[in-house]
Amino acid sequence: xxxxxxxxxxxxxxxxxxxxxxxxxxxxxxxxxxxxxxxxxxxxxxxxxxxxxxxxxxxxxxxxxxxxxxxxxxxxxxxxxxxxxxxxxxxxxxxxxxxxxxxxxxxxxxxxxxxx
Length: 116
What we know:
Layout: E1 11-18, H1 24-33, E2 44-51, E3 57-64, H2 67-74, H3 77-83, E4 97-102, E5 105-108, E6 111-115
Antiparallel strand pairs: 1-3, 1-4, 2-3, 5-6
């Protein structure tokens, strides 16, 4: 049965980090040692920390059921706890840059392509 637009929702939140030259390993270690508070958050689907090949740019990429789930998480105790952990002061060239996206088309294994 084809997937309809009402069956699939998808929202992406990404923070871009410009890591200071030579501090990449420290930045990655900071993330590896953090406790994740995302498990069990309603609407959370996936997290990945992405590294660009050679530019010093990293992206924290979270996938959510929809915008409302993301917004609710930003207001939660889990969000506050996660963001109180190990500072990245001195590791970055500037503050992270947040970008958010709503899917208009989504495809995944076992999921028919869907216009949303």
